[in-house]
Amino acid sequence: MRNVFLLAIGMFTLGFDAYIVAGLLPDMSATFHISDSQSGQAVSIFTLCYALAAPIFATLLAGKPIRTVLVLAFAVFTVANGASALATNYSFLLISRAAAGIGAGLFSPLASTAAASLVAEQKRGRALGITLGGMSIGTVMGVPLGLIVANEVGWQGAFWIIAVMGFITTIGMMIFFPDFSTEAPPSLRQRVAMMTNKNVLAIIGITFLASIASLGLYTYIASVLKNLEGIHSITPYLWAWALGGVIGSLSIGNFIDRTGRPALLMVGILAILSVGMFSLPYALAFPIFAYFPIFIWGAMGWASVAPQQHALLHTQPRHGKVAVALNSSANYLGGAIGAALGGMAMAQGLSSSHLPFAAGFLVFIALLGQWIILRKQND
């Protein structure tokens, strides 16, 4: 299991990097003299390249030794984060974030495949849980930890820390990781072919809409909070979101096992998430009450991932790995588009304090779509 934990550390670093920029937006905006909506595109381009890199580069590198590809992916990711720390202008920052997203997108699906291949069949669930858990914990804790780091060493220092973590992980894989053959990650052709299945497309569409709302809004959470009166420090609220995310992602599996109805659970999750987002601007008028909707947002946003994966595995038992990987791409692609749309809306004059209403409306649309899916299953 040592190598599985090594993969989990790598996945934690990727998740940490994916959304740490959301907590650094105000400082980055001040450095480059740009708006928060512009600096938020650094999140968009990372997550967009993350979502697209996996199928494209998996096809190009198919058949290569797994250790070689993992080391190459993390080396690209590490160097790109060092370049982000050294960025002297906004354009160079975007280029470096795109390169980091490509490295992350190549590493992530291959790490999951490798984790399942490193252990006996009866331990594969645990190995995958550890590996994917590293990603989710890194993602939900990226913003609050990023703020703490930025306050101490600046936003450039935050990227240097990620680069150091990446360097250590890369060296660890070069020294300790075994060189073996395994099944290649899903190819571009496999993912495109999967989109012709209506059931898969419907499930992934819900994931896509929910991630536009939840992860897209999360990109601007620092801006949303700082624009509201009565909040002197946003860090406690970010920890509330992170705590909700950890609890939601780790506990939802038990509910799935007990009910055996992921589609019904997804209806409840989306309903609660929409209420939480619509109530957020009102709750923030009373800072002490604001923790609850933010906690609910984090918990429900991350709890929505597992039911979708379970539904896809049930729908496509022979091609479950491809379907789940496609769902992961849709999740991060939705986050990228959500960040881009949020930035465009703010650039057109929409106040960041109104973004939760737009996000809540998208979740409500996803809820209606999920209700239709549930009704068809019951017919």
Automatic annotation (TrEMBL):
The chain crosses the membrane at residues 42-62, 69-92, 98-120, 127-151, 157-178, 199-218, 238-256, 263-282, 288-308, 329-349, 355-374. Residues 3-378 form the Major facilitator superfamily (MFS) profile domain. It is found in: Cell membrane. Gene3D superfamilies: MFS general substrate transporter like domains. It is a multi-pass membrane protein. Keywords: Cell membrane, Membrane, Transmembrane, Transmembrane helix, Transport. InterPro entries: MFS (IPR011701), MFS_dom (IPR020846), MFS_Efflux_Transporters (IPR050189), MFS_trans_sf (IPR036259). This is MFS family arabinose efflux permease.
